[in-house]
């Protein structure tokens, strides 16, 4: 049994998170329920920041809020001294409602709408990561309309892509995101941004993948970018002041996942960037990164109540819970794997093997295949680990199932940060037929 962060088994044999008994949490708030270990989020954020500060380099650590967004999460990230990576008008609006500093907000996305850019410019956000020429024109028009100037990064595809443990380098990466580094698009975009009186070009942004367990890909991306910096300096009179290397740092979901400490990714980035900056006789650019999953992923646990069972002798023993793909789409979407325990009997030995089924009317609504557990009973509480990233943020109302609540747990205290939806919420926007 692998326990993350502050999780432990208490004297009652119950799973405890943040000093709080999860069985008591399930009784008070019902299930499904997302529980976040705030102390673990603090620890992860500190690892990234301390690595930069130890090396004494300029930096920003921006929370990639697509992993999990709510007002309280933005406020916590602000307490931790983080910047904010948003990818939609909805995420930006939530950040505005959280009253975080707008100059620390960076707006991503491959198809930002005119309305979203208008909201961003009016709010006075810190940076737009420009993804394409159409967006550059929209941003220019928006800045002109509001008589404002916007700091921008150009998202580039450096020809480096991470596939879990493997990395490939190609001449032109096939991606819906960004300007291609090898076919002249980046040069054209730099010229256009530099010529605009309403854009202040800070540098470039690169993101090579997700759930990455090694530093090699980030090193390759830095090397690729620096191959072009001398060209930009001599031909375009442009030297990036900011290099944003994105996120994608891995976490442990199941046995066999072996991520590095957050600081190790940072150390390797800094090391190679210092080498290339010195060789190019230029000041070290400010380094930005965007951890999301690696900040909140293993800090989140989902609690479910066990319901029905179906035992097919010599085939499979199904155990159904009161949630599923409506609160965790990842297993159905791309076969994500998880571990879990019975939270109310966490000290008991696993004697059986169950496949955990969700309650949605889909045969593909399976959360975990072949999970070792004690002999499970109706009303047991199942805890599924590492659901803090892309769990609640991908939650949906399929089958008209209300979305679960979210609580933060730390030092024995609990705060409800997202309320449970009810049936009235489901029909709130519905309109009757007009006769």
UniProtKB/TrEMBL annotation:
Amino acids binding substrate: 293, 330, 334, 362, 390
Domain called Orn/DAP/Arg decarboxylase 2 N-terminal: residue spans: 40-296
Residues that, per the record, bind pyridoxal 5'-phosphate: 248, 290-293, 390
Domain of life from the UniProt record: Bacteria
UniProt xrefs under InterPro entries: Ala_racemase/Decarboxylase_C (IPR009006), DAP_deCOOHase_LysA (IPR002986), De-COase2_C (IPR022643), De-COase2_N (IPR022644), Orn/DAP/Arg_de-COase (IPR000183), PLP-binding_barrel (IPR029066)
Residues with N6-(pyridoxal phosphate)lysine modification: 66
Keywords linked to the UniProt accession: Amino-acid biosynthesis, Decarboxylase, Lyase, Lysine biosynthesis, Pyridoxal phosphate
All residue ranges annotated as the Orn/DAP/Arg decarboxylase 2 C-terminal domain in the record: 35-388
Pathway the protein contributes to: Amino-acid biosynthesis; L-lysine biosynthesis via DAP pathway; L-lysine from DL-2,6-diaminopimelate: step 1/1
Cofactors demanded by this protein: pyridoxal 5'-phosphate
CDD domains on file: PLPDE_III_DapDC
GO molecular function term, any single one: diaminopimelate decarboxylase activity
EC number(s) stated in the UniProt entry for this protein: 4.1.1.20
Family: Belongs to the Orn/Lys/Arg decarboxylase class-II family. LysA subfamily.
Subunit structure: Homodimer.
Role played: Specifically catalyzes the decarboxylation of meso-diaminopimelate (meso-DAP) to L-lysine.
HAMAP family in alphabetical order: LysA
Protein's UniProt name: Diaminopimelate decarboxylase
Species annotation: Alkalicoccobacillus gibsonii
GN (gene name): lysA
């Amino acid at each position: 049994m692998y326990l993350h962060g502050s999780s432990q088994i208490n004297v009652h044999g119950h799973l405890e998170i943040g000093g709080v008994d999860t069985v008591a949490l399930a009784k008070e708030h019902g299930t499904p329920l997302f529980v976040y270990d705030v102390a673990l989020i603090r620890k992860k954020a500190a690892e990234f920041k301390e690595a930069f500060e130890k090396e004494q380099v300029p930096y920003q650590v921006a929370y990639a809020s697509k992993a999990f967004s709510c007002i309280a999460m933005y406020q916590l990230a602000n307490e931790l001294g983080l910047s904010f990576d948003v990818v939609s008008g909805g995420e930006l609006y939530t950040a505005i409602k959280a009253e975080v500093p707008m100059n620390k907000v960076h707006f991503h996305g491959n198809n930002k709408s005119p309305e979203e850019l208008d909201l961003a410019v009016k709010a006075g956000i810190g940076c737009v990561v420009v993804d394409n020429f159409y967006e550059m024109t929209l941003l220019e028009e928006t800045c002109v309309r509001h008589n404002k100037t916007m700091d921008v990064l150009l998202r580039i595809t450096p020809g480096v892509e991470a596939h879990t443990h493997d990395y490939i380098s190609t001449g032109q990466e096939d991606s819906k995101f960004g300007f291609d580094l090898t076919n002249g698009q980046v040069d054209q975009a730099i010229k256009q941004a530099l010529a605009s009186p309403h854009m202040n070009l800070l540098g470039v942004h690169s993101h090579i993948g997700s759930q990455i367990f090694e530093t090699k890909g980030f090193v390759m991306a830095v090397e690729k970018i620096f191959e072009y910096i001398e060209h930009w300096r001599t031909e375009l009179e442009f030297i990036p002041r900011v290099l944003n290397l994105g996120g994608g740092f891995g976490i442990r979901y199941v046995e066999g996942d072996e991520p590095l400490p957050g600081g190790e990714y940072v150390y390797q980035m800094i090391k190679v960037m210092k080498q290339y900056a010195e060789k190019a006789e230029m000041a070290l650019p400010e380094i930005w990164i965007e951890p999301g999953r690696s900040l909140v992923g293993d800090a989140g646990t989902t609690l479910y109540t066990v319901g029905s069972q179906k035992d097919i002798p010599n085939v499979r023993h199904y155990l159904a819970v009161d949630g599923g793909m409506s609160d965790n789409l990842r297993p159905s979407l791309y076969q994500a794997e998880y571990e879990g325990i019975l939270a109310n009997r966490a000290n008991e030995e696993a004697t059986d093997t169950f496949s955990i089924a969700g309650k949605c009317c889909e045969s593909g609504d399976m959360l975990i295949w072949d999970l070792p557990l004690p002999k499970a009973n109706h009303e047991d509480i199942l805890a599924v680990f590492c659901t803090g990233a892309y769990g609640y943020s991908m939650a949906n109302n399929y089958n008209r199932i209300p979305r679960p609540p979210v609580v933060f747990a730390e030092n024995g205290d609990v705060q409800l940060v997202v309320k449970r939806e009810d049936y009235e919420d489901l029909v709130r926007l519905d309109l009757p037929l007009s006769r």
